[in-house]
Amino acid sequence: MRIDLHAHSTASDGTDTPAELVRNAAAAGLDVVALTDHDTVGGYAEAIAAVPAGLTLVTGAELSCRLDGVGMHMLAYLFDPEEPELARERELVRDDRTPRAQTMVGKLRDLGVDVTWEQVARIAGAGSVGRPHIATALVELGVVPTVSDAFTPEWLADGGRAYAEKHELDPFDAIRLVKAAGGVTVFAHPLAVKRGECVPEAAIAELAAAGLDGIEVDHMDHDADTRARLRGLAADLGLLTTGSSDYHGSRKTCRLGEYTTDPEIYGEITRRATGAFPVPGAGGRER
Fold first, then answer.
1. Rounded to whole angstroms, how far apart are CA atoms 99 and 97?
2. What count of Cα atoms within 13 Å lies in the side-chain half-sphere of residue 29?
3. b/e per residue 13-40 (b: at least 16 CB within 10 A)
4. What does the radius of gyration of the chain's CA atoms come to, in whole angstroms?
5. Can you tell me the distance from the alpha carbon of 64 to that of 84, in angstroms, rounded to the nearest whole number?
6. What is the distance between the alpha carbons of residues 159 and 141, in angstroms, rounded to a whole number?
C-alpha cells in the first residue's frame, strides 16, 4: 500500500480542487490519501463525492498552533468535523486569516513591494487565505523565484520583515480538542528548520505525555540525519511515525506520494480514531 497522509487543496492553499486532488492521488498510484487543508474541512464534501475506485480518503486538517512564541502545525485525522468546540476554534483561526494577510500585504508595500490585496485575494480564490498565497504573489511579481524562497526572514518567515501573527491554538488544547472529537494527532514536520524556529525536543516529550499520537518524520523538509533523529525520539516517546508529501499542487515542488506512511502505522491511526472513518472510493463523480 502507498499511503500519503498530508495533502492540500484549494479549500486552503493548494492548487488542486478537492476533486482533482483525489483523482490525481489515484493517478499517482496511491492507495490512501489524506486531505489536510489548513484549519478547514471545507473540501470534504467535494473530495468524498469524487473519490475514485481503488483509493481511500482520510479526512483531516492541519491546525495552526503556537507554543511559547514558536509556530507549529498539528495534523488531525478522522475527527468529527461537527464537534462544536473544535469547529469553533477552527473558525476563530480562519476568521483571523484575512486581516492577518491584509496586514502582511501592508507590510510588504511599506517595504516597496508592489503587491495588492486584490492580487492575493485572486490567488486565494475561495480558499482559506494564507502565507503561500502571498508568497505566490511575490513570485508573480518577480520578487522571489519560488514560493519557498518567500519563507525567509527577509519576507514571510515567522518573525520576518513582513510577518504578522494570527489566532493560533495552543497545541495542548489542540490535542485535547481533537481527541474529544474522536481524532488522532500528528505533529507536522517538527524539525523543518529551514522554515524557521522549531519547538524543542523537550516540548515534543511534553506533547507526547499530553496525548500526542505521532510525529511526521519522512517529509521534504527533513534531511536524512533529521529523520533518523526523529525516529529515535519517536521510539523513546512511544509515538507513531508518519511520512507524507505535504502536497500543494503546483504551488510547491513536492509530488503526491513523494513520501509515504507505513501501512501498519496507518492501521493504528484508523484503529485509534472514533470520530470518522476512512472513505473508500466508489468511482467518484466528475466535476
1. 6
2. 7
3. bbbbbbbbbbbbbbebebbbbbbbbbbb
4. 18
5. 18
6. 22
How far apart CA 216 and CA 221 sit, in angstroms, is 11
What cell was used for 155?
519576507
Q: Give the pairing type, strands 184-187 and 214-218.
A: parallel
Q: What's the grid cell of residue 21?
A: 486532488
pLDDT in tens, 103-119: 999 999 999 999 999 99
The pLDDT > 70 percentage for the chain reads 98
Cβ neighbourhood burial of 270 (10 Å; 0-12, 13-18, 19+): middle
100 is written with which cell numbers?
A: 492577518
* Residue carrying C-alpha cell 496507518: 266
Structure-block grid coordinates of residue 209: 505525555
pLDDT in tens, 173-196: 999 999 999 999 999 999 998 777
Dihedral pair phi/psi, residue 112, rounded to 5°: 95, 10
What's the rounded Cα separation, in Å, for the pair 216 and 199? 14
* Partner residues linked to 76 by β-bridges: 61, 185
